[in-house]
Design brief:
There is one protein chain. The protein is an alpha+beta fold. The protein has one domain. About 40% of the residues lie in helices and about 15% in strands. The chain contains 5 helices and 4 strands. The protein has helices at about 15-25, 35-40, 80-95, 105-110, 120-130; strands at about 45-50, 60-65, 65-75, 100-105. A 4-stranded mixed β-sheet has the order 1-3-2-4. A hairpin with a 2-residue loop joins strand 2 (about 60-65) and strand 3.
Length: about 130
């Protein structure tokens, strides 16, 4: 399955919150709570969990050959933290300008809102909007 969004596209540049609202609108989601994992799957992104072999990562996004994969640390037991991490990685996928093939995000990346780490900051804003 090809992913619904491309990281090389001609979309206008919006705020992370606007990208989140666009995703909800495109999928017809208007009620809460939001099932972030189902959004990932509806966007054509493969979802998986891994212990990352003991490496300190909470989540990752990888793009390759027209496909995308979100991997979340299987050791995250708190549902709210897991959902935010999934939404954060989805933010890297959806926000125009987040063009890296891979994002590996630590707990600190996902839980600290620092504007000097602009891609992590924007992914956090996207996740918070969901």
């Amino acid at each position: 399955m090809e992913v619904m969004s491309s990281f090389f596209d001609n979309r206008p540049r919006f705020s992370p919150e606007t990208y989140a609202r666009i995703v909800l609108s495109e999928l017809g989601i208007s009620s809460f709570p939001i099932d972030v994992r189902s959004i990932v799957e509806k966007r054509g992104i493969i979802y998986a969990e891994s212990d990352f072999n003991g490496i300190n990562f909470d989540g990752a996004l990888r793009r390759q050959n027209g496909k995308a994969l979100v991997v979340i640390n299987s050791g995250i037991s708190y549902p709210g933290r897991k959902n935010f991490t999934i939404a954060h990685e989805l933010g890297h996928f959806e926000i125009k300008g987040h063009n890296e093939r891979e994002y590996f995000c630590t707990y600190k990346d996902i839980n600290v809102f620092k504007p000097e780490k602009i891609y992590e900051y924007e992914a956090n804003q996207f996740a918070a909007e969901l």
